[in-house]
Design a protein that fits this description.
Length: 522
């Protein structure tokens, strides 16, 4: 029967074997732990933290030989900087007492073989036996000396910078631990809207925090850590305004380690916070736009395949020489409709891309608006009739075909047709009305229906690209979700505007207004 010591030794040997296999099999880990700045250790749970395993890069990084540790010539505790050793030991003791599986040390220093100090980051796993007793510590250390040096230099640089630039957008202060103001520069007075230092010193800095809990947290941090870096809170100015500030501060102590005062800097970051809020909103919009675009592409794939399947399928059926004439005509009609549907989809995509890059051309001519509206009426009247809908045209200010306007006839017709096409799609019963009213300097055009309408929460986004792509309507009714975006783009290119009339509750009503130059034909 194996003894407890045998079991522990077996477990250690198995662990060593696993570590060895991992180093051999994993190229990336081998590169990290042999050539990188990370050293693996397996420490014994004893007073000196003797070492059972250490990775080979210990020689390159710290100048020690692996055998120095494995032979017991050097214990790990021996190379810890004396000022840090007590704290490191306390952190281990606490982790063990709390039965932790893993823990991180606060950064500490160790000596290399030449006696030079290195700052170390240490992550350790505690190994327990079956009786929950600690047998070993397994972990890795990372040399962070360069980072520490950079952080120290940066702190010195910031301190000098703020001292020199008293009149910049950063305020400087010195206060007692209780918050009595001992010193403040002119910029701090400006930030807090005080007239002079005497007026400011009559107030305790603690009352400047809009939330008293922020002051308590600040004091806790600076007393325990000695410094506060980048601490953000909301302050109240003399005039009652609330501003966002960022603080960098440190505690100054006497030889008996008693706190004398706090000193630091205050930066008004209210504008920055405002921009951050705007950036966050922009990011959310971008994420949503990306989702809409993905939904649009998926929907577009379906929209394109549908007419293509119709064209290809019925084209194959036409190859049957025994088809009757009526059946052949029916198939050809389906192919034509599918082709028109596919052409409309492609045209929408091309127009949308032209609008985005500013290449959609506007060609204004003198034309009869009444003739244009009558042509549109004839185009959709039959479709409305087949669906059982009333279709009505209303004009005001254009009595005859001789009354003309000067605009882009093709693009104006495109706006009307997109809106009427949507009205037909989303209206099951009732009436579709379209038309125009001539004002002094512009046309007021409209398309309205008695269909399903647009929910209030979606009305603000209906003119966005792919605005219909993620809608349940896209699934039920189809469509690429570009029609309204195209209408908006064309209307703006014509110098006008388009909007959804939210006061119209019987369905949907779109109004677009376009400036015109009227000319009379003789």
């Amino acid at each position: 029967m194996k003894t407890k010591e045998d079991l522990i030794n077996t477990e250690i040997e198995q662990l060593k074997s696993q570590i060895s296999e991992l180093e051999k099999l994993n190229t990336q880990q081998q590169n990290l732990y042999v050539n990188g700045n990370t050293v693996i250790f397996l420490w014994n749970n004893d007073s000196g933290w003797t070492v059972d395993y250490v990775s080979e890069n210990i020689r390159r990084l710290l100048g020690y030989e692996v055998t120095d540790f494995l032979s017991g010539k050097i214990n790990y505790a021996d190379i810890i900087y004396p000022d840090d050793k007590e704290r490191v030991l306390a952190e281990v003791t606490e982790a063990v007492s709390r039965k932790k599986g893993h823990f991180e040390h606060l950064d500490y220093r160790i000596f290399d073989a030449d006696g030079n100090l290195h700052w170390i980051y240490d992550f350790t796993t505690i190994i327990y036996d079956n009786q929950k007793n600690v047998t070993h510590f397994y972990g890795y250390i990372l040399d962070i000396s360069r980072r520490k040096t950079a952080e120290h230099r940066l702190a010195l640089s910031e301190k000098r910078f703020r001292t020199v630039f008293e009149n910049a957008t950063i305020g400087y202060y010195r206060t007692s631990p209780d918050g009595d103001i001992m010193m403040a520069n002119p910029m701090l007075l400006k930030i807090l809207e005080y007239n002079d230092l005497q007026e400011l010193t009559q107030h305790n800095v603690a009352i400047g925090y809009a939330n008293p809990a922020d002051r308590r947290k600040f004091r806790e941090l600076i007393e325990t850590q000695g410094v506060v870096s980048g601490y953000e809170s909301v302050w109240r100015t003399k005039n009652g305004n609330h501003i966002f500030v960022r603080e960098y501060a440190s505690v100054v102590r006497d030889e008996q380690n008693r706190t004398l005062f706090y000193e630091g800097t205050v930066e008004d970051i209210s504008i920055q916070k405002h921009y951050e809020a705007e950036l966050l909103e922009a990011k959310e919009k971008a994420v949503r736009a990306d989702k809409l675009k993905s939904a649009f592409l998926a929907n577009m794939s379906h929209e394109i395949r549908t007419p293509l399947n119709g064209i290809l399928g019925f084209a194959q059926l036409l190859s049957d020489e025994e088809l009757q004439t009526e059946t052949r005509k029916y198939y050809i009609e389906i192919i034509n409709k599918s082709g028109e549907q596919l052409l409309r989809i492609i045209s929408d995509v091309l127009d949308m891309s032209k609008i985005e890059v500013g290449e959609l051309t506007i060609k204004k001519t003198n034309f009869s608006l009444k003739t244009l509206l009558n042509d549109i009426y004839l185009t959709f009247h039959r479709s409305a009739e087949v669906k059982g809908l009333f279709f009505r045209l209303e004009t005001e200010g254009f009595e005859t075909n001789e009354d003309t306007v000067f605009s882009d006839e093709h693009r104006l017709k495109q706006i009307y047709m997109n809106l009427i096409h949507n009205a037909l799609k989303f209206t099951e019963t009732g009436l579709i009305t379209f038309g125009t009213k001539k004002e002094e300097t512009f046309l007021s055009c409209f398309v309205q229906d008695t269909g399903i309408g647009i929910p209030l929460e979606k009305q603000e986004r209906i003119f966005e690209r792919y605005g219909n792509a993620d809608s349940e309507h896209a699934i039920k009714y189809g469509g690429a979700g570009l029609g309204l975006s195209i209408c908006k783009g064309i209307t703006e290119l014509l110098g006008g505007n388009i909007y959804y009339d939210s006061t119209y509750i019987s369905g949907a009503r779109f109004i677009f207004q376009i400036p015109i130059e009227q000319k009379k034909k003789y």
